[in-house]
C-alpha cells in the first residue's frame, strides 16, 4: 500500500508489538525488471492484517506465518503474489503497469497522489531539465518548461531579480509572485528592494538561494484547486521543490558520490553601432555632444580639439594640451563589456542502510557577469536523511545552509540623457561613436573624480561608475524541516512537520565621492532578517471498500512570518574609497530615495484547518472535495476568517469503458474539472492609522535638527478585506497511438474580486491615497502540452514537445472616479489597470492623432505633436507563448533544444527609443544629408509636407528629447533558441573496470539566439526584460541593460 | 508510552502552534509597530511640519510665478503647452495632503501638506492652550489658501480635508476662500494675543526669539493688507479696511520683521540648502537652470539705454553670478541663437520690437547668459556659461568679476532665504494703494516708492554678512552709487506724466525688489499689468493668452468626481476672482 512511508519514529519512543505465534523472519528485496530496488514497495501477508514496506533500496524484513503467501505491490507496478514456502529470503521482480495509470505526483503539502485521481493540472519538471544549466537562478531555469508559467528576468546581470507568474496576474496591487515550498516547507521568495526602480537595484529574488543542480524535481501547482490546502498563501500558484536531500533515497546499498563541474561563458548581446557618423547635431563635428547626429567619418580621420584640452583640466591632464583627438569610430561600447564566466562545482553523496538513508550535497557557484563589478558567489550545503526508528515510527529531515553574494553596479532608468540616478547602462549604451570611452581617462588624477568628454562634465563616466559604484546583496540562509510520521492503524497515519526558513540579508548601495550623481558620495547598508516557522499536523486515512476507495487528508497549519530590518544611509564621504559609515558626515535612517524607511519590522500570522477527501470508484472516477478554514492577521477581526472550499472530479474513460481498454489509438484518457477559491490578504498594518514621525527633516543654518510628526499621506481603512479569488478549470490528459502521443490540456477561468486598490485621492481630501476593495480581474487561459515520440528505435529516440500558453486578463468593476490605477512605473508613464482592458496596459504620453484619418498630427515645426495627458500606448500582454522542445537521443548522445516563441505584446523600450533618438546604431546609418518628412497629417488636414533634418526627425521626435513615450513602443514578438545542449554519457561497459559508476559530458547554452523582428534590426533588443524590477509591471524598460548569452560545458562523474 | 499519548502529544503541538495565537495576539498584529499611535502627537512637532510644508508649498508656487513673469526660464513655447496639469500636482499636494516632505526628495514622494497638519495642530493645540502655535498654524494656512486661489481660482475649502467623510470635495468660490483666509487671520491674531497661552514652540523657523508673537501678529496684519490689495479691483469695500490697517500701522515696515524662510548649509541628510543654490552650484555640468534674460536686462540694462551697466542698480552683483564676463565662448554649439543675433546686430524674431533697447534677445551683454521667454530649443552644452543665482537670496557667490565656474560649496553655502514678505514689499504695496486708491495714510506714493527701493537695496547689500560672505570691497557699490540709483528711479517717477506710468515705475521697482519671490510679482502682474514692457515670447509670434491661472492639477481633476472641468490656459483667459482686467491685458 503506497501510504506506508519510509520508516521513521520518535527518538524517545519504542513500541513493541507482540508477534504472531509460530512465525519466521523472511527477508527479501523487491526490484524492478532491471534489478534496481523499488523503495517503499508494500509487502502484505495474504489473509492477514499488517505488513511492511521496503526500504529505499527495496529491502524488507517481515515475520510471517509458515507457508504464508505475500502480496507485493508498488506504486507504478502490477502487484504479484509469492508463496514463501520454507524460504527465508526472496527476491521479487515487479513489472511496471501502464505508466499513465500509475504515475504519481507530489501535490500540496507534499502529498503523493496517483495523477489519474487529480481533478486539476500539475506540471512536473524533472531534474534532467534543471541540472547543469548555465543559469544559477532556478526561476530562469524554469523558463518555458511548464505551460502557464511566465518568467521574466529584470536584466542580463548575474544575480538580478526574476519575476515569476503563474496563470497571469490576478491582483492589481498585491503580490503576484507564487509561493515556493521546498521539501514541504514555505520558502521566502521575496525581492527585498529598498527603493524604487529609479535607483536601479538589481535586487536578487530570494529563490536565488536554491541550487538548481540540487533539485530532484519541481512540481508547479497552477490552479487554486491544486493549492487550496495552502490557503491564501497558494493563491498565485505554488512551486513545489523537492531537493535531492529531501527526496526519498533510491541509492543502492553502497554510497554513491556524484561530482559535477561546469563552466559557462556569459556574453552581453549588444546593438551594432553606427561606424559612419560621429557625435554632434545636424552633421556638425561635435565631439562634446550627447547625440550621434554629427558629421560623417573621413579617412584619414579629422583631428579635432581634445575633449580634455580645456583650462579647467590644464593641471590634471597637461598631456592633452594641444593634443589631437581623432573624430572616428572607436568601438567603445562593445569594449566596455567583458566576457563573463560561471563555474559551478557540485558534490553529492548519498547512501542508504537497512533502516536509514542519507544524502549530502555541496556546491559552489562563481559567476562573473558581463561587466566588471557584477558577480555572484553561492555556496550551498545540504543534508537530508531518514530513519526508521521502530516499527511504525519514522523520522526524516533536511537542513540546508546557503550563502549568496551578488554584486552589481546600479542600473537606474535613463532615456538616453543622463540617467535619473547612477546607472551603468543608462550612460553607456548611447555613447556617441567618436567618444573613445575606453581610451580617455575616467577619473581625475588629483582626487579620483569622474571625468568625461562633455564640456560641462555632466555625464558620469560609465567606467567611473564601474569602479566606484556598487550594490551588494549578501545572504546567509538556513532552512530545513523535520517530519515525524506514525502509522496509527491500517490506513491511518499521523504526521507532524516543523519547518523553518531563516535568512539574513545584507544589502549595500554605495558610491564614492567624485561622481556626477550624488557627488559627495553615498553609502547605504541594511540588514534584514526573515524568519518563517511553519507547523503542520497532518492526518491521512486511506482505505478501500470493495469498488470504492477513500482517501482523507486533514490537518492544521500555523505559519508565522517575521521580517525585521535595520539600516542607515550615509552621505558626504570623508575619505575617497572608504566605505564605512564612520567615514561619512551625514547619516539618515531612510534609504537613498530619502523617504523609504530602512528600519522596521513586520509580522504575519496565518492559521488554517484543512481537510480534503477523495472518493474513488473502480479506479476510473474520483471525486475530491475539501477546503481550508484560514485565519490571518492583517485584517480586522470581522474579516479575518475565510473558508476556501474546493471540489474536483476526475474521470478516466479508458478504464471505465471496456471497449476502450484495449484500444491502440486511445491508450489513456482522463477528463477533469475542478473549482476552488482563495484570497489575497492586504499587507500588514493597512487597517489602522498611525502618526508619521521623522527626525532631522531639516537642518537649520545654526545646525539645529528639525524633527516632525505629521498626518500620514495614506488614509487607513478599517474595513479592508482580502481579495477573493475563484477559479474553475477543466482539462484533458491522454496518450494516443501506442503511447507515442501525449496530450495535457487545461482551460481555466479565474476571477479575483474585491481587489485591494490603492485609490489615489484628490489631495484636497486631506490624503493622497487609501486602500479600498473594489474591482475585478478576470484571467482565462489555455495551457496545452503536446508530446510526440517522432522516432523510436533501438538506438534512436526523438521526442518533440510543444507547450502552449495563452492567458487573457480583463479588468472590470472599477468605479468611474478611478479612471486608471497605476500598477508600476510612473503615474504618467507606467503600467495601469483600466476597466475593459487587460491588466497592466501601458499608459503614457502619446502622439496626437488626426481625428479623421487616425494618422499622427504634425505641427508647424514639422514635428509630431505630443499629448498633454496620458493614454493607452501599448498592451504588454503576449497573445500567446509557445515552447518547442526537441530531445534526440542516439545511444549515449542526447541533443536537446528548447525554442520559445512569443506572439505579440507591446513593449516600451527605452533602449530602442533612446538609441534611435541618439543615432548611434546602424539603424540610423542612412544618408543623413537628405531632408525628411515625417509621415502624418498637418493640423489643416493635409498630408505633412514639412521638410526637416534627419537629426530633427529622429532626435526631436524621440523620448530622448521628451517626445511622446509612444515613440518607444514596439511589438515584442520574439523567437528564441532558449536552450540547446549536446550531452554524452559513457556506456556502462566502458566504465566497468574503472572506479566510476557513470560519466557524462555536455555542451550547452541558453539564450543562444533570438530575433524580435519588429524592433529596429541592429538594436538586437531582447524584449524579455523588465526595467520595473520585480512586481506587477511588465513591458517597460529604461535602458536598464542588455540580455546575456551563456554557453559552456559540464562534466559529471559518479563513483 | 502509548499510542494514545503520542497522539495526544502531537495534537497538543498542533494546538499550541495553531490555536495558541488567540484573538488577542492577532489583534496586536494589526498595530504598526514601526510608528506611534495618533495619540502621541506633539503640537511643536506638528508645527515644525507645518512650517516646513509651508515653505515647500511656497517654493513651488513661487517658481511657476517667477517663470511666468520672466524672472526664471519659461520654456513655452505656447501658454497652453508650457505646462501640463500634472506640473501642478506638487503644489496641490503640499497644500492639502497629509504626509511629510523631506527636503530634496523627489516630488512624487513628497506630499507633506500644510493644511491637514495645521488642522491637526490647531485642534490639539487648542485643547492644550498652546494658542501661539495654533495662531502660527492659522496664519500659514491662511496664506496657503489665498495662494491656492491666486494660482488656481476656485478651490476646495469648506469641503476640503475631511478624510473618509468626503473624498470628493467641491470647490468654493475664490472670494469665499479669501474670506475664509481673512477670518483665519483674525482668529490667528486672537490666538496669538490670548493671555492664557501656554509657552510658544521650541522652534520657530520664521520668527525665532523674543519678538516671535509680536512679529506673527504683525505678519498676520500685513497679510490682510496683501489680500485686501489683491481684491481692490473687485471689492470697493477694501479701501476702508486698508485705511484702517494703515492707520493702525502694525505692519512689516522694518527689515527685522521680514518674513523669510532661512535655509541651512547641509548638502545631504537632509539637503537643507536653498533650492536654487542646489541647482546652480555644482561641481559638474555647471548651472542647472536659466535665469530669464528679461529680468537680468531689467536689472542691468533697461534704465541705461539697453546696455549693461554694472555700476547701475546696486543689487546687480548680489542678484546674479556670471561664470564668464564675455561671450568669447559662444559658438553655434554652445549658444545657437548667439550666431543669429551676433550680439547686437540682429536676426531677431520678426515680431520683436526694435531691439536691444526695448527688449533683450539671446544675450544681454558682459557675459550675462540666460534664456529668453518661451525659448523651447534644446539645451546646448552651456552649463559652464549660464549666469547663476547670486549671493542674494540663494546664498551663492557675489559677482566680483571673478569669471570662474561655479563649484559645490561656493559662496554662502546655500544658507539663503526665501523672501516671502519683506518690508520693502509693504512699502510698494502702500505706494500702490496711495496711487490707485488714494490712501495716503502711510505717505505719498513717491515717498513710499523711495522707501521701498531703499530698504530693498539695504536688505540686499546687508545680506552677504548674514551668510558669511565678504564681497570684494572694490566691487561693493558705494553710497553714491546707491543714491544715484534711488535718484534715477525718483526722477523717472517725477518725469512720468500719467498715473499709469507712475504705477509702472512703482510696480517695476517692486518687481526688481522681489527677486527670489515669484508669488508676489505674478499676482502684481495680473492685477496691475506692470512692468509694462515684459519680454515677448521668443519662439512663436502668438503664444496664446497669458496664463492668468494655472491648470487644475491632474491629481485634482482626475481623482475628484466633483472637480470642475479642466481649464484651458492659453486658449481661454481664465482669470481668478480678483482679476477683472481685460483679456489681452498682459502677454
From N to C, what is the helix and strand string of chain B? HHHHHHEEHHHEHHHEHEEHHHHHH
Please tell me the overall pLDDT of chain B.
89
- Count helical runs of chain B: 19
Shape of chain A: globular
Topology, element by element:
The complex is a heterodimer of chains A (1055) and B (587).
Chain A: E1 23-31, E2 42-45, E3 51-53, E4 59-65, E5 69-73, E6 80-83, E7 89-93, H1 99-102, E8 104-106, E9 112-114, E10 122-126, H2 138-141, E11 149-153, E12 162-166, E13 179-182, E14 185-187, E15 215-221, H3 224-227, E16 238-243, E17 256-268, E18 302-305, E19 324-327, H4 332-336, E20 340-352, E21 356-368, E22 375-388, E23 393-408, H5 462-468, E24 469-489, E25 492-511, E26 522-545, E27 548-573, E28 584-588, E29 600-617, E30 621-632, E31 641-651, H6 653-656, H7 658-661, E32 666-680, E33 692-699, E34 705-710, E35 714-715, E36 723-736, E37 741-753, E38 756-760, E39 769-773, E40 776-792, E41 796-812, E42 821-826, E43 829-833, E44 841-847, E45 857-858, E46 866-874, E47 880-890, E48 893-903, E49 906-909, H8 910-918, E50 937-938, H9 950-956, E51 969-971, E52 974-985, H10 988-991, E53 998-1011, E54 1036-1037, E55 1044-1054
Parallel strand pairs in A: 1-7, 13-16, 35-39, 45-50, 49-54
Antiparallel strand pairs in A: 1-4, 2-3, 2-5, 5-6, 8-9, 10-15, 11-12, 13-14, 15-16, 17-20, 17-55, 18-19, 20-21, 21-22, 22-23, 23-24, 24-25, 25-26, 26-27, 27-28, 27-29, 29-30, 30-31, 31-32, 32-36, 33-34, 36-37, 37-40, 38-39, 40-41, 41-47, 42-43, 43-44, 44-46, 47-48, 48-52, 49-51, 52-53, 53-55
Chain B: H1 3-19, H2 23-28, H3 43-68, H4 89-96, H5 114-127, H6 131-152, E1 155-156, E2 171-172, H7 174-192, H8 212-230, H9 238-248, E3 259-262, H10 275-280, H11 293-300, H12 316-319, E4 320-321, H13 336-341, E5 388-389, E6 417-421, H14 423-437, H15 445-466, H16 479-495, H17 499-513, H18 519-528, H19 554-557
Antiparallel strand pairs in B: 1-2, 3-6, 4-5
Amino acid at each position: 500500500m503506497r501510504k506506508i512511508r519510509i520508516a521513521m519514529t520518535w527518538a524517545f519512543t519504542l513500541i513493541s508489538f507482540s508477534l504472531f505465534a509460530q512465525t519466521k523472519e523472511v527477508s527479501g528485496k523487491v526490484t524492478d525488471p532491471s534489478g534496481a530496488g523499488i523503495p517503499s514497495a508494500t509487502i502484505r501477508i495474504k489473509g492477514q492484517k499488517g505488513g511492511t514496506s521496503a526500504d529505499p533500496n527495496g529491502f524488507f524484513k517481515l515475520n510471517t506465518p509458515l507457508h504464508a503467501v505475500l502480496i507485493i505491490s508498488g506504486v507504478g507496478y502490477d502487484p504479484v503474489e509469492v508463496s514463501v514456502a520454507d524460504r527465508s529470503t526472496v527476491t521479487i521482480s515487479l513489472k511496471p503497469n501502464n505508466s499513465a495509470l500509475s504515475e504519481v505526483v507530489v501535490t500540496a503539502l507534499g502529498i503523493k497522489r496517483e495523477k489519474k485521481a487529480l481533478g486539476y493540472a500539475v506540471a512536473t519538471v524533472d531534474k534532467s531539465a534543471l541540472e547543469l544549466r548555465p543559469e544559477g537562478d532556478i526561476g530562469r531555469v524554469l523558463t518555458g518548461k511548464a505551460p502557464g508559467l511566465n518568467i521574466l528576468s529584470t536584466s542580463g546581470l548575474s544575480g538580478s531579480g526574476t519575476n515569476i507568474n503563474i496563470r497571469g496576474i490576478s491582483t492589481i496591487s498585491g503580490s503576484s509572485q507564487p509561493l515556493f515550498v521546498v521539501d514541504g516547507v514555505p520558502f521566502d521568495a521575496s525581492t527585498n528592494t529598498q527603493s524604487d526602480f529609479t535607483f536601479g537595484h538589481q535586487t536578487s529574488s530570494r529563490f536565488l538561494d536554491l541550487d538548481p543542480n540540487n533539485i530532484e524535481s519541481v512540481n508547479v501547482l497552477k490552479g487554486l484547486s491544486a493549492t487550496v490546502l495552502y490557503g491564501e498563501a497558494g493563491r498565485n500558484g505554488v512551486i513545489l521543490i523537492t531537493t535531492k536531500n529531501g527526496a526519498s533515497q533510491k541509492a543502492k546499498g553502497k554510497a554513491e558520490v556524484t561530482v559535477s563541474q561546469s563552466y559557462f561563458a556569459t556574453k552581453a548581446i549588444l546593438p551594432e553601432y553606427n561606424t559612419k557618423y560621429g557625435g554632434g547635431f545636424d552633421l556638425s563635428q561635435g565631439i562634446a555632444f550627447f547625440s550621434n547626429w554629427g558629421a560623417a567619418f573621413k579617412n584619414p580621420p579629422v583631428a579635432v580639439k581634445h575633449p580634455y584640452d580645456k583650462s579647467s583640466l590644464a593641471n590634471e591632464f597637461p598631456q592633452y594640451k594641444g593634443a589631437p583627438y581623432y573624430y572616428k569610430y572607436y568601438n567603445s561600447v562593445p569594449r566596455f563589456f567583458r566576457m563573463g564566466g560561471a563555474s559551478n562545482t557540485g558534490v553529492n553523496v548519498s547512501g542508504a542502510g537497512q533502516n536509514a538513508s542519507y544524502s549530502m550535497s555541496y556546491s559552489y557557484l562563481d559567476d562573473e557577469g558581463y561587466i566588471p563589478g557584477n558577480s555572484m558567489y553561492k555556496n550551498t550545503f545540504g543534508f537530508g536523511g531518514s530513519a526508521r526508528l521502530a516499527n511504525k515510527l519514522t523520522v526524516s529531515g533536511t537542513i540546508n545552509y546557503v550563502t549568496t553574494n551578488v554584486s552589481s553596479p546600479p542600473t537606474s532608468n535613463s532615456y538616453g540623457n543622463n540617467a535619473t540616478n547612477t546607472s551603468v547602462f543608462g550612460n553607456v549604451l548611447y555613447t556617441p561613436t567618436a567618444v573613445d570611452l575606453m581610451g580617455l581617462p575616467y577619473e581625475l588624477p588629483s582626487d579620483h573624480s569622474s571625468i568625461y568628454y562633455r564640456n560641462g562634465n555632466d555625464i558620469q563616466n560609465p567606467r567611473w561608475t564601474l569602479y566606484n559604484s556598487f550594490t551588494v546583496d549578501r545572504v546567509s540562509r538556513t532552512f530545513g524541516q523535520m517530519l515525524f510520521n506514525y502509522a496509527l492503524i491500517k490506513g491511518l497515519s499521523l504526521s507532524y512537520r516543523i519547518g523553518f526558513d531563516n535568512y539574513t540579508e545584507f544589502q549595500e548601495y554605495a558610491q564614492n565621492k567624485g561622481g556626477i550623481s550624488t557627488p559627495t558620495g553615498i553609502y547605504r547598508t541594511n540588514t534584514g532578517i526573515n524568519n518563517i516557522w511553519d507547523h503542520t499536523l497532518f492526518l491521512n486515512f486511506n482505505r478501500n471498500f470493495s469498488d470504492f476507495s477513500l482517501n482523507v487528508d486533514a490537518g492544521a497549519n500555523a505559519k508565522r512570518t517575521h521580517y525585521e530590518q535595520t539600516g542607515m544611509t550615509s552621505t558626504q564621504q570623508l575619505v575617497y574609497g572608504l566605505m564605512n559609515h564612520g567615514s561619512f558626515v551625514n547619516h539618515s535612517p531612510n534609504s537613498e530615495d530619502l523617504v523609504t524607511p530602512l528600519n522596521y519590522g513586520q509580522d504575519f500570522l496565518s492559521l488554517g484547518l484543512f481537510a480534503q477527501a477523495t472518493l474513488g470508484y473502480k479506479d476510473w472516477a474520483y471525486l475530491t472535495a475539501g477546503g481550508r478554514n484560514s485565519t490571518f492577521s492583517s485584517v480586522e477581526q470581522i474579516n479575518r476568517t475565510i473558508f476556501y472550499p474546493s471540489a474536483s472530479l476526475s474521470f478516466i474513460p479508458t478504464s471505465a469503458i471496456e471497449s476502450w481498454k484495449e484500444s491502440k489509438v486511445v491508450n489513456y484518457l482522463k477528463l477533469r474539472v475542478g473549482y476552488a477559491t482563495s484570497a489575497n490578504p492586504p499587507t500588514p498594518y493597512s487597517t489602522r492609522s498611525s502618526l508619521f514621525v521623522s527626525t532631522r527633516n531639516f537642518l537649520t543654518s545654526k545646525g539645529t535638527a528639525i524633527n516632525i510628526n505629521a498626518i500620514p499621506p495614506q488614509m487607513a481603512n478599517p474595513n479592508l478585506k482580502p481579495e477573493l479569488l475563484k477559479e474553475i478549470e477543466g482539462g484533458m490528459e491522454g496518450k494516443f497511438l501506442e503511447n507515442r502521443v501525449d496530450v495535457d490540456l487545461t482551460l481555466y477561468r479565474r476571477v479575483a474580486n474585491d481587489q485591494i486598490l490603492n485609490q489615489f485621492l484628490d489631495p484636497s481630501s486631506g490624503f493622497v491615497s487609501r486602500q479600498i476593495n473594489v474591482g475585478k480581474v478576470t484571467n482565462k487561459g489555455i495551457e496545452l502540452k503536446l508530446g510526440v515520440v517522432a522516432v523510436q528505435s533501438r538506438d534512436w529516440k526523438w521526442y518533440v514537445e510543444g507547450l502552449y500558453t495563452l492567458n487573457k486578463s480583463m479588468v472590470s468593476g472599477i468605479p468611474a472616479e478611478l479612471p486608471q490605477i497605476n500598477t508600476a512605473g510612473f503615474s504618467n508613464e507606467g503600467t495601469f489597470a483600466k476597466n475593459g482592458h487587460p491588466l497592466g496596459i501601458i499608459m503614457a504620453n502619446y502622439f496626437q492623432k488626426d481625428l479623421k484619418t487616425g494618422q499622427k498630427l504634425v505641427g508647424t515645426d514639422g514635428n509630431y505633436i505630443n499629448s498633454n495627458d496620458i493614454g493607452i500606448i501599448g498592451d504588454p500582454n503576449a497573445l500567446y507563448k509557445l515552447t518547442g522542445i526537441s530531445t534526440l537521443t542516439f545511444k549515449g548522445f542526447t541533443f536537446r533544444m528548447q525554442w520559445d516563441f512569443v506572439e505579440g505584446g507591446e513593449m516600451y523600450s527605452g533602449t530602442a527609443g533612446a538609441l534611435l533618438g541618439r543615432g548611434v546604431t546602424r539603424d540610423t546609418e542612412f544618408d543623413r544629408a537628405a531632408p525628411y518628412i515625417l509621415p502624418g497629417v498637418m493640423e489643416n488636414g493635409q498630408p505633412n509636407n514639412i521638410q526637416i533634418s534627419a537629426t530633427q526627425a529622429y532626435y526631436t521626435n524621440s523620448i530622448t528629447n521628451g517626445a511622446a513615450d509612444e515613440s518607444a513602443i514596439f511589438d515584442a514578438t520574439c523567437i528564441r533558441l532558449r536552450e540547446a545542449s549536446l550531452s554524452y554519457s559513457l556506456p556502462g561497459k566502458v566504465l566497468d573496470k574503472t572506479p566510476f559508476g557513470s560519466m557524462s559530458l555536455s555542451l550547452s547554452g541558453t539564450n543562444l539566439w533570438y530575433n524580435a523582428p519588429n524592433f529596429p534590426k541592429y538594436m538586437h533588443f531582447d524584449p524579455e526584460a523588465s526595467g520595473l524590477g520585480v512586481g506587477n509591471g511588465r513591458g517597460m524598460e529604461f535602458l536598464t541593460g542588455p540580455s546575456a548569452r551563456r554557453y559552456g560545458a559540464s562534466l559529471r562523474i559518479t563513483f | 508510552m502509548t499510542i494514545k499519548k503520542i497522539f495526544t502529544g502531537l495534537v497538543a503541538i498542533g494546538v499550541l502552534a495553531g490555536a495558541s495565537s488567540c484573538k488577542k495576539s492577532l489583534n496586536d498584529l494589526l498595530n504598526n509597530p514601526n510608528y506611534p499611535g495618533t495619540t502621541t502627537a506633539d503640537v511643536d512637532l506638528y508645527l515644525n511640519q507645518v512650517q516646513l510644508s509651508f515653505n515647500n508649498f511656497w517654493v513651488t508656487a513661487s517658481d511657476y510665478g517667477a517663470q511666468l513673469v520672466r524672472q526664471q526660464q519659461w520654456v513655452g513655447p505656447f501658454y497652453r503647452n508650457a505646462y501640463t496639469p500634472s506640473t501642478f500636482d506638487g503644489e496641490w499636494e503640499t497644500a492639502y495632503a497629509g504626509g511629510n516632505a523631506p527636503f530634496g526628495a523627489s516630488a512624487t514622494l513628497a506630499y507633506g501638506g500644510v493644511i491637514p497638519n495645521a488642522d491637526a495642530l490647531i485642534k490639539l493645540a487648542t485643547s492644550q492652550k498652546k494658542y501661539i502655535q495654533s495662531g502660527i498654524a492659522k496664519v500659514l494656512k491662511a496664506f496657503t489658501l489665498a495662494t491656492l486661489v491666486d494660482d488656481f481660482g476656485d478651490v476646495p475649502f469648506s469641503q476640503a480635508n475631511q478624510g473618509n467623510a468626503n473624498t470628493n470635495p467641491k470647490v468654493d468660490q475664490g472670494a469665499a476662500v479669501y474670506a475664509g483666509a481673512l477670518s483665519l487671520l483674525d482668529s490667528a491674531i486672537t490666538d496669538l494675543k490670548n493671555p492664557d497661552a501656554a509657552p510658544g514652540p521650541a522652534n520657530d523657523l520664521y520668527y525665532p526669539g523674543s519678538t516671535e508673537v509680536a512679529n506673527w501678529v504683525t505678519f498676520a496684519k500685513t497679510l490682510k493688507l496683501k489680500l485686501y490689495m489683491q481684491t481692490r479691483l473687485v471689492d470697493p469695500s477694501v479701501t476702508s479696511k486698508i485705511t484702517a490697517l494703515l492707520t493702525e500701522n502694525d505692519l512689516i515696515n522694518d527689515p527685522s520683521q521680514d518674513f523669510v524662510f532661512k535655509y541651512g548649509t547641509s548638502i545631504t541628510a537632509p539637503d537643507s540648502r536653498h533650492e536654487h543654490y542646489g541647482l546652480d552650484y555644482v561641481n559638474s555640468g555647471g548651472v542647472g537652470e536659466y535665469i530669464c534674460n528679461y529680468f537680468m536686462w531689467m536689472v542691468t540694462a533697461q534704465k541705461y539705454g539697453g546696455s549693461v551697466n554694472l555700476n547701475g542698480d546696486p543689487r546687480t552683483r548680489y542678484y546674479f553670478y556670471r561664470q564668464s564676463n564675455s561671450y568669447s565662448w559662444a559658438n553655434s554649439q554652445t549658444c545657437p541663437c548667439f550666431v543669429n543675433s551676433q550680439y547686437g546686430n540682429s536676426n531677431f524674431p520678426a515680431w520683436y520690437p526694435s531691439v536691444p533697447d526695448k527688449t533683450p534677445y539671446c544675450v544681454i551683454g558682459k557675459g550675462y547668459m540666460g534664456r529668453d521667454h518661451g525659448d523651447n530649443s534644446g539645451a546646448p552644452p552651456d552649463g559652464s556659461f549660464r549666469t547663476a543665482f547670486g549671493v542674494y537670496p540663494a546664498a551663492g557667490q557675489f559677482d566680483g568679476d571673478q569669471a570662474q565656474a561655479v563649484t559645490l560649496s561656493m559662496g554662502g553655502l546655500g544658507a539663503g532665504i526665501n523672501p516671502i514678505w519683506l518690508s520693502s514689499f509693504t512699502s510698494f504695496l502702500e505706494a500702490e494703494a496711495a496711487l490707485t486708491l488714494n490712501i495716503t495714510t502711510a505717505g505719498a506714493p513717491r515717498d513710499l516708492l523711495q522707501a521701498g527701493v531703499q530698504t530693498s537695496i539695504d536688505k540686499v547689500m546687508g545680506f552677504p554678512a548674514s551668510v558669511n560672505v565678504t564681497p570684494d570691497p572694490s566691487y561693493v557699490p558705494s553710497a553714491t552709487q546707491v543714491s544715484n540709483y534711488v535718484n534715477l528711479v525718483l526722477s523717472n517717477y517725477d518725469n512720468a506724466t500719467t498715473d499709469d506710468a507712475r504705477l509702472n515705475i512703482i510696480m517695476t521697482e517692486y518687481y526688481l525688489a522681489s527677486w527670489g519671490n515669484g508669488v508676489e510679482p505674478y499676482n502684481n502682474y495680473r492685477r496691475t499689468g506692470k512692468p509694462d514692457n515684459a519680454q515677448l515670447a521668443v519662439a512663436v509670434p502668438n503664444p496664446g493668452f497669458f496664463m492668468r491661472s494655472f491648470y487644475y492639477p491632474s491629481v485634482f481633476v482626475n481623482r475628484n468626481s466633483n472637480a470642475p472641468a479642466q481649464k484651458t490656459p492659453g486658449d481661454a483667459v481664465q482669470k481668478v476672482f480678483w482679476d477683472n482686467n481685460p483679456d489681452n491685458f498682459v502677454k
